[in-house]
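From the shared-data thread, chain only:
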Amino acid sequence: MEPTQRPAIPTLTAKTSFYTPTISSGVVDAIRLPEDIEARLTALAAKTGRTKTFYAKEAILEHIDDLEDKYLAANRLENPGKRWTLDDMQQDLDVGN
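Structure, as tokens:
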């Protein structure tokens, strides 16, 4: 991947279904999932006695740090902000003189 390219966001080619979990301490309106993933999630919930919401929340909590790192870094490469030299910072903070 070139340094200035944003990581590709996968597109869904399979039929999708909506799953609306209820997540405490926040609201998620809907998650669009491919039908095969929805079926796997439903089967996992049924076999373990846990809710689909439990597993959706677990997946988000498990991966949010990596997703933030990946997409915020890509955004920073695409939209670089102001850059400062050490001299600029010292002068702005009135230190080192």
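The two ends are 43 Å apart (CA to CA).
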